[in-house]
Design a protein that fits this description.
Number of helices: 14
Number of domains: 4
Radius of gyration: 31 Å
Structural class: alpha+beta
Oligomer: single chain
Helix content: 40-55%
Order of helices and strands: HHEEHHHHHHHHHHEEEEEHEEEEEHE
Strand content: 15-25%
Shape: elongated
Length: about 475
């Protein structure tokens, strides 16, 4: 008979479980799927009581390795961008990386993640079966079963390619992508466990079996996964540290689920609780509500800003974001003449050295930089022609608007606004007597409001010493 507490199989005449030593209660062996909340609770209770020590250290090692891999990939495949402080930012934007580059990045990450996943799943299965195991299995098992590892990597890469191709089909492709992802996720998870238990099985046979054992069980699988949502929310308050404990708990619970749907383990009838359908429905409802709130907040913010801009255009009244911003608009500073150009610099800004800049000044918070590039071009070229060349020099990690001819204090400047990863750049371009004047104000996203006020001050005072009004 099976233990009603831990699911361990015992002799029919046993009174106490040979594993957990609790009193045995007869559990009928049948293939019917018990009440969904009963199964979920029993699976989680059993996973909670298991000794998961090897998995805790395993998760720490896995997360550390993934982070190191992420850093290496970003440095190797990422795009460089100049930060507002004059340093260099790296970004990894898969939407602009190109299909081949994205595939290489995916394979690198999946090679690392699936290596640890295979080892962790092996440990989880051993724990669910009350077998002795150790952290060493996480490293040794994928090497010992390299064929299984390569099969799992291959099928995951193939499915990634299929799903990625669907994204190129407008609307219908996205819908199919979501449907297939929801359908395939539990199959792929069980596929790994089946490969572990059947080392000589072919990929086709393993997939066929995974489809078979998950038939009619996908709702229960997602309900089990979503039932841990509360733990994930709590992990936010621990800066993610709680996930070191959560992930082993989930790993063993999923292993228990696998043993259950393959009829290897039976579970005691637990008290009734929230059904699987209710859990999924509540989760979807909360998710939709969250999307609605975020969307409403974005549109409200955009509407308020649009109203402010319209009022500011049509009147001399400047609508500020709050009471502090109103007084902060009166920024104290002085106009400095740099190579014949008057540039407003706030008092608290300190002069810094930046390559190719004649002068550069940075705020105390190091989030706004004002700099002037100034040199003789050596040939005759218009400011607009130079500005177009300058615009094209920006890397793909920047998005630049249209060049505009702006009359500032009786002189025509070419202005260009560009946005990168976390940094924005306002450019002023002028050429006088074959000499370039390129004034650059760079600032991060969190300094948008203050940067706008400084830019207003700069434009009010920006002029050449030899230009007469």
């Amino acid at each position: 008979m099976y233990c009603s507490h831990c699911g361990r199989k015992n002799d029919n005449n046993s009174k106490f479980c040979s594993s957990c030593e609790k009193e045995l209660i007869t559990v009928e062996e049948n293939n019917s799927f018990l009440h969904n909340s009963i199964i979920r609770k029993s699976i989680k209770k059993d996973a909670m009581e298991k000794n998961k020590d090897p998995l805790y250290l395993g998760n720490i090692i896995m997360f550390t390795t993934v982070i190191i891999t992420l850093i290496v990939v970003v440095l190797s495949f990422g795009e460089k961008a100049i930060a507002s402080s004059g340093g260099t930012n790296y970004s990894l934007n898969l939407s602009t990386s190109g299909f081949l580059k994205s595939l290489i990045i995916y394979i690198i990450f999946m090679s690392v993640i699936l290596y640890f996943t295979l080892g962790m799943n092996k440990i989880s299965l051993d724990i669910s079966r009350d077998k002795k195991t150790s952290i060493g299995s996480m490293f040794k098992y994928p090497f010992q079963k390299i064929t299984i590892y390569l099969k799992i990597l291959g099928i995951n890469t193939l499915i990634y390619l299929l799903l990625e191709l669907l994204t190129y089909i407008p609307v219908v492709g996205i819908i199919l992508y979501l449907i297939l992802t929801i359908y395939l996720s539990p199959i792929l998870v069980m596929f790994i466990y089946i490969m572990i238990d059947n080392t000589n099985i072919s990929i086709r046979q393993a997939i066929k079996k995974a489809i078979s054992v998950t038939k009619g069980k996908k709702v229960a699988y997602y309900a089990l996964i979503l039932s841990f949502a509360g733990w994930y929310l709590l992990s936010i308050f621990t800066l993610g540290l709680l996930t070191i404990w959560i992930m082993p708990y989930i790993n063993v619970a999923i292993s228990n689920f696998y043993l259950y749907i393959t009829n290897e383990k039976k579970y005691k009838a637990a008290p009734k609780g929230i059904s699987n359908g209710a859990i999924i429905g509540i989760t979807i409802g909360i998710y939709v509500l969250f999307i609605i709130i975020i969307t409403f907040a974005i549109f409200t913010y955009a509407f308020i800003n649009e109203v402010k801009e319209e009022v500011n255009k049509d009147s001399d009244i400047i609508i500020e974001d709050n009471y502090i911003d109103y007084f902060d608009n009166n920024i104290s500073g002085k106009t400095i003449n740099i190579s014949g150009l008057d540039v407003f610099i706030p008092d608290e800004y300190k002069e810094i050295t930046l390559e190719n800049y004649e002068k550069a000044y940075m705020s105390n918070e190091e989030n706004i930089v004002i700099g002037l590039i100034n040199y003789d071009i050596g040939y005759n070229i218009s400011a607009s022609d130079y500005a177009n060349t300058y615009k094209s020099s920006f890397s793909s990690s920047y998005s630049c608007g249209n060049l505009q001819a702006s009359n500032i204090n009786h002189y025509n400047w070419e202005t260009l606004e560009c946005n990168g990863v976390g940094v924005n750049i306002q450019n002023y371009i002028a050429i006088q007597n074959n000499r370039l004047y390129l004034l650059i104000i760079s600032y991060d996203n969190n300094s948008f409001s203050k940067a706008e006020r400084i830019i207003n001050h700069i434009e009010k005072n920006l002029m050449f010493s030899n230009i007469v009004a």
